[in-house]
Amino acid sequence: MERKSVDIRSQIDDAWSRLLLISCFVFWLLTALGPAQERQDEEIARRIVFRIEGPGLPWDYRIADFDVRDKIIRHLTERLPGFEAAFSLSVSPDGKIVAYLADPITPPEGGTVAFSALVRSLDDLKANPQNLGVKAQGINGWSPDSKKLLITQLKDANGTAHIAVDIATKKSVPIDVPLFVGPKDATWVSGHYVSDWSPDGKWFVTSCGFGRASGDMEVRLNLVKIDGFEIRRLDHVPFGRMAKFAPDGKRILYSGRLDADDNRKHLFVAELAGGKPIRVSQELNGDISSWCWSPDGKKVAYVWHNGHRDEQGETFLMVVDADGKNAEAMTSQKSKFACFRGLSWR
Predict the structure, then answer these.
(1) What 3-state DSSP class applies to 66?
(2) Mean pLDDT of 50-71
(3) How many Å apart are CA 64 and CA 258, to the nearest integer?
(4) Which residues contact 291 (CB under 8 A, 6 or more apart)?
(5) Residue 53 phi/psi, 5° resolution?
C-alpha cells in the first residue's frame, strides 16, 4: 500500500515536472518571438518608398526608398520606361505591392494622357510589372486588406470617376458617391474627389470644391460611406483637400490653408471627431507635396521643395511628429522641381 502511494506521488511529480518544462519552453518561445517580431516590424517601418528622379536624362524616374534610421536613399529599380513613370506611386498597407502609373507615349502638346495602372512586388522589383488593364489619372489608396486599388479616372472634361480594381482578378467596380451640396451662395459645385480609404474599410475621405460670386474657390473635406448612402461633412476642417487617414482611422493628414486669404499650402492633422486642426508643416514658402503617415501614426513625412533657395532649388524629405513638433529634414537633393513623389511609409 505504501509502495503504491510512493508510485502515485512519483507520477504526480513527473507530471508537474513535465508541465513546468513545457511552461518554461512556451515562455522562452514567446519572449524569443516577441522581440523578433518587433525587430521585423521595425525593419518594415523604417522604409519610406517614393518615386525619385535619377541622375540621367529627363524623365529618368525610379522607385526608391529611404531608410529612416540610417538615412540612406536606395534606388530599388533602374530607369522605368514611360513619360511619367512611377507617377502617383502608392504602396499597399501590407507593404508587399507597389502600384504606380506609367505610359510610354508622350502626350500631344496640350493633351491629356490616361496612364496605365501597374503593380509590382516590392520585394522583387526586378520582375516585370503587372498591367491591371485600366487607364487612370491617379492612384488614391488601397483597401485595408491590400486586395483592391482605388483609382481615379477622367470621366469627361468636367470631372472624374473612381473605381476599385481587384489586384488578383483585374476586375473593376465603379465607386458611387452622392452629390455634394454646397452652400446656398455657391455659383458652382464640383463632384467628390476620393483621396483615401479608411483603415476599417467603411469610409472614403473626399474633397469637394465650390465657387462663389466673388470668384473665390473653396474646398471642403467629407467622409463618404463606401456604399454611397451616407456623407459626413467635416466642417471643422476648413480649406482642406487630399486627406489621408491615420493608421488608427481617427485622424486625417491633409493639405489646407490658414484662412481664406492665405494662398500658401500647409499640412494639418485633424481629429475626425472635431476640434481645431494642428498645423504640422512649418515652412512658409516653397511648395509642399506628397505626404503620408508613419505606420504607428506618431509621425508624418512630406516633401518640401524650396524653389527660392537658389536658381536650381532644393527638395527636402521632412519628418515631423503628428503634433507638429521635432521637424527634421531627413535628406535633400538639388532639383528644379520636387524630385520625391508619392510617399508611402511602410
Answers:
(1) strand
(2) 79
(3) 33
(4) 244, 253, 255, 267, 300, 301, 302, 303, 343
(5) -80, 130
For the segment 322-326, the average pLDDT, to the nearest whole number, is 93
* Euclidean distance between CA atoms 158 and 9, whole angstroms: 86
Domain residue ranges in the chain = 1-45, 47-73+284-346
CB atoms within 10 A of CB 20: 10
Confidence bin at 299 (pLDDT 50/70/90)? very high
- pLDDT at position 3: 47
Going along 177-257, which residue ranges are E strands? 186-189, 193-197, 203-212, 217-225, 231-238, 241-245, 251-256
CB count within 10 Å of CB 285 equals 10
**d(C-alpha 271, C-alpha 212), whole Å:** 28
DSSP H/E element including 4: helix 2-45
In 224-254, which positions are buried (b, 16+ CB within 10 angstroms) versus exposed (e)? bebeeeebeebeebbbbbbbbbbeebebbbb
> Residue 188 pairs with which residues in a beta bridge?
211
What does the DSSP 8-state code read for residue 344?
Answer: E
Cβ 183 vs Cβ 210: under 8 Å? yes
* Beta pairing partners, 173: 164
Question: What is the longest distance spanned by two Cα atoms in the chain?
Answer: 105
Residue pair 59/309 in contact (Cβ under 8 Å)? The answer is no
287 forms bridges with which residues in the sheet?
Answer: 305
**pTM: predicted TM-score of the whole model, two decimal places:** 0.81
Q: Are strands 231-238 and 61-67 parallel, antiparallel or unpaired?
A: unpaired
Looking at residue 104, the DSSP 8-state letter turns out to be S
How far is 100 from 274, CA to CA, in rounded Å?
34
pLDDT, average across residues 288-298? 92
Residue with the three cell numbers 527638395? 315
